[in-house]
Design goal:
Layout (H helix, E strand, L loop, with lengths): L2 E3 L5 H12 L4 E2 L6 H4 L2 E2 L1 E2 L5 H15 L2 H7 L1 E4 L3 E5 L4 E5 L4 E4 L2 E4 L2 E6 L6 E3 L2 E5 L2 E5 L6 E5 L4 E3 L2 E4 L1 E10 L4 H18 L7 H17 L3
Antiparallel strand pairs: 1-14, 2-4, 3-7, 4-6, 5-17, 6-17, 7-15, 8-9, 10-14, 10-17, 11-16, 12-13, 12-15
The structure holds nickel (II) ion.
Nickel (II) ion binds next to loops.
């Protein structure tokens, strides 16, 4: 399931990120790639341990913390510190799968969900689509600056070559409380239906209480915390 999260960052936050990234150091993106990925990856990244990456990462984490759609769709347990990349003309990242396990300050986490937060407007560059192999076929994604796509970490994906301009983004992984994509999807759809129902009938209506009870009891059954 691909989830488009509009306006994860405000235009002011995007502008601040862009301003800081203009002045940041950029290194070869292969620094964080696994063996298979390194062969097909050609882009630039801000070093993970740099002050710029940490400060900008905090802006992204604050955006995630206030976003109800992210919370409902990802059911996050741990979020990898956001990283920042850039594709100039000719740069690309061919088809690959992300490493299943990542280490954050000595703690291992599972990459259940991948995220790309766009920091360039679509008219600033040509090419550069994120192409994700979904159960419904390949989906090409190119979103407004400040918008994010959330997709299963299990998916094969690539970034098409940039043919004009430059594509800037933040990317990171999330370990979900619910490892299984199908179960997480069911909980998300149920949550969305309950929200919709609460706009039609009172919050204390028996149907809302019953469904909310089912939702939380499924969470108890399926969540690892
Ligand atoms: Ni990837």
């Amino acid at each position: 399931m691909l989830i488009h999260i509009p306006n994860l960052l405000t235009p002011e936050e995007v502008a601040l990120c862009r301003q800081r990234l203009e002045a940041a150091d950029w290194i070869d993106g292969r620094a964080t790639a696994g063996d298979q990925s390194a062969k097909v990856k050609h882009n630039l990244q801000v070093p993970e341990e740099s002050t710029a990456a940490r400060e900008l990462g905090d802006i992204v984490l604050r955006g995630l913390a206030r976003n109800a759609l992210f919370s409902s769709a990802a059911l996050p347990l741990r979020v990898y510190p956001p990283m920042f990349n850039r594709y100039d003309v000719g740069m690309t990242f061919n088809t690959h799968v992300d490493n299943a396990i990542r280490s954050v300050q000595g703690t291992r986490m599972r990459t259940d969900l991948s995220s790309t937060l766009f920091l360039s407007a679509p008219d600033e560059y040509d090419g550069g689509e994120l192409v994700i192999e979904d159960t419904y076929g390949a989906q090409a994604v190119k979103l407004p600056a400040g918008d994010m796509i959330l997709y299963p970490g299990t998916s094969l994906h690539r970034v098409n070559p940039v043919t004009r301009g430059s594509r800037w983004a933040s990317f990171f992984w999330t370990q979900s409380m619910v490892a299984d994509d199908a179960k997480r999807r069911l909980l998300f759809e149920m949550d969305m239906s309950i929200i919709q129902m609460r706009s039609i009938v009172p919050d204390d209506h028996a149907s809302v209480l019953g469904l909310a009870g089912c939702y939380h009891n499924l969470m108890r059954m399926w969540c690892e915390v």
